[in-house]
Amino acid sequence: MPGSAGSRWARSFARNEYVRSVCVIGLATAAGIALRRQLQTTDLAMLLLLAVVLVAYRYRRGPAVLASLLSIAAFDFWFVPPYHTFSVHDTAYLLTFGVMLIVALIMSQLTAGIREKVEEAREREQRTAALFAMSRELAAATDLQGQMAAVTSHVGEVVHGRASVFLADPDGGEGHHPWPDDGRLGSVAVRVAATWAYEHGESAGWGTGQCAESEALIIPLKSPSRTLGVVILTPESPERSLPAGDRRTLEALAAHAAAALERTLLAERHEQARVEVESERLRTALLSSLSHDLRTPLGSIEGAASSLLDESGGLSRGVQREMAET
Fold it and tell me: Side-chain half-sphere of 275: how many Cα atoms within 13 Å?
């Protein structure tokens, strides 16, 4: 399944970080052994601390903590007499080990925190740029189809995949399937995930914990008032995992798109209602005009018919014939 393949890839990547952290400490230790005659013991300790800082700068907290512990072990084994053993005859070195461990852990925590903040700032910058670009195209679009095309284009660019927008039928009753039956949604798993995302207002499918067997990611188009539909994103490589930052960016784009699409739908419905009111007004005016124009001849016809029906004989035959012809 795509989800399990992505998890294996993530675990493999995490293991590689730990292996690299061990290699960095090993290289620092090798350099210290080569320079042991030229450097003091404190200098060797600083060299190992520098390796810890490099690991913390490049990798996450776990590899940095491992590097901190390995640096203490390497310092004790290679640079504290008696060499090549973890025994410590001079108890003063115990304080040195403790200080090294504390400093290494603090430095690893600080550098890892700074690195995480930099990544968060970069993610926010990318999300803001994506939202700005999509907002500009949504504002330039003149109809609903143009806006949907802009949404699919920008959502697909985030993870280099193919995106589609499906709006649900708001007039369908309970039990009514909100999606077309023409096969555009893809497999049954995608349809199930789309229905779940639409009903619960949460993302489902690829890279999530819901309907993970789906090969596509489904994001609901959730406006402040209701859920309009879903965005279905099919990645080029479903076997890889979806980064949390990319998922947050996709959900932010979908929320912004839902607000824009809802405004367009409301504007179209308002225009349709205005046209219907105007048509009714014109129909009423036409009927009123016709009734006014017909009132006078109808009155004449009614008077002539009444005279013709009068059997008192007050009208001559010629006058009756004339009234009948009129």
Answer: 6
Q: How is residue 282 written in tokens? A: 């014109």
Side-chain half-sphere of 61: how many Cα atoms within 13 Å? Answer: 7
User: Token digits for 4?
Assistant: 């399990």
Do 8 and 239 meet the contact criterion of CB atoms below 8 Å apart?
no
Residue 84 CA to residue 78 CA, distance in Å, equals 6
Closest C-alpha to 166, from 150, 189, 184: 184
What's the CA gap between 254 and 152, in Å, rounded?
A: 10
Question: What is the block-wise mean pLDDT of the chain (326 residues), using blocks of 10 residues?
Answer: 46 73 92 88 86 83 86 87 79 79 80 82 87 88 87 85 82 54 72 88 86 86 87 82 84 89 85 86 82 73 76 68 74
Q: Give the side-chain half-sphere CA count within 13 A for 215.
A: 12
